Amino acid sequence: MTFFDQSKKPSRDAIISQMAKDKACYNVSLKVLIEKDGKFLMLTNNEGILDLPGGRVDADEHKEPLRQTLLREIAEELGEDIKVEIGEPVMCFRRIFDDYDIDVFLVVFSGKTISGDISISDEHNDYFWMSPQEVIADQNKFYSGEEYEAFKKFLLNRGL
Known about the structure:
Layout: H1 12-22, E1 27-36, E2 39-44, E3 50-51, E4 54-56, H2 66-78, E5 83-97, E6 102-115, E7 126-130, H3 132-135, H4 145-157
Parallel strand pairs: 1-6
Antiparallel strand pairs: 1-2, 1-4, 2-3, 2-7, 5-6
């Protein structure tokens, strides 16, 4: 039984256009906080800002399982050799890029390294295995206070 006339169903673009008028619209980014021997894998960009492996969901991936998208991003940013077990979502926060008129909503999953060597892409400058204390030692190493507070809350709840 159908409750509405399928022939009058609005297009996806029409729905998105209407939503954009009334609500905040975000790109969605999936990240992974990889833990190994009590330390976390942190990447850095050209400005020395901390980041995690992962990235935005591509337009053609909107119906794919989230973990599949995240595994693609991990392979792109850390190399095909690295194998990671992805856990559950552990935190979320926003990144607002006023200069680019882009807002990103990030969901961070827990992860554990299974095997392989890291070979970072040119999207990042370097990587470090950092203790929880090192991760939250400097708020200025994060894109925003909101991001820093999300990390701090997560790590403190784990008992550092």
